[in-house]
Amino acid sequence: MPENRELRAAARNQLKGSWLPAVGITLVYSILSGIAGSIFGIGLLIVGGPLTLGFLGYFVHKARGEKAEIENLFEGFKNFGTSFLLYVLVGVFTFLWSLLLVVPGIIKAISYSMSFFILRDNPGMSAMDALNASKKMMNGYKWKLFTLCLSFIGWCLLCGLTFGIGYLWLSPYMLLSVTNFYENLKRKQGGEAAAA
User: Fold this and answer.
1) Is 196 inside a domain boundary?
2) Mind listing the pLDDT tens digit for each residue in 130-155?
3) Host domain of residue 136
4) What's the predicted TM-score (pTM) here?
5) What's the number of CA atoms in the CB half-sphere (13 Å) around residue 160?
6) What's the rounded Cα separation, in Å, for the pair 66 and 59?
7) Is residue 21 part of a domain?
8) Residue 162: left (phi > 0), alpha (psi -120 to 50), or beta?
């Protein structure tokens, strides 16, 4: 697996010349999520899965050197039922583990973190199978992903000084770094975890 700095460097290179579209899709995703969340408190629960699947799909296209467009954001609705169920399962299981203490919740959230990437690559997979495949894929690599996310803490603090506006630039950088993590881990494992 590449070092975290290499994953971040790859993300910066992939975003060269295309920061604005990445920021744009992040803004649209944030607006749609905000609108959905304001609808009786359950709107985001209903569309959160498909939106997440499409949003991450955009960065998968970027990481693979494919054409990435804002239309990718809505690709998740082609697999509405499974992405909806996966969103619910990840939320419920993470919440239940968090009841034990914060640390178990964080560990499980990291274990489930590849679920939507796996579902995106395997649209015929069930939500539970995607969840289990993520757990298998992340076995032995949870600390690696945790430190990758932690390496952005300085940027997160700076973005807080911009009243959150800076996150429109930081989010694509972070998500593409995590996508590169997924791509490299999948290759390292020969695609076995994603096909489980």
Assistant:
1) no
2) 999 999 999 999 999 999 999 999 99
3) 4-184
4) 0.90
5) 6
6) 10
7) yes
8) alpha
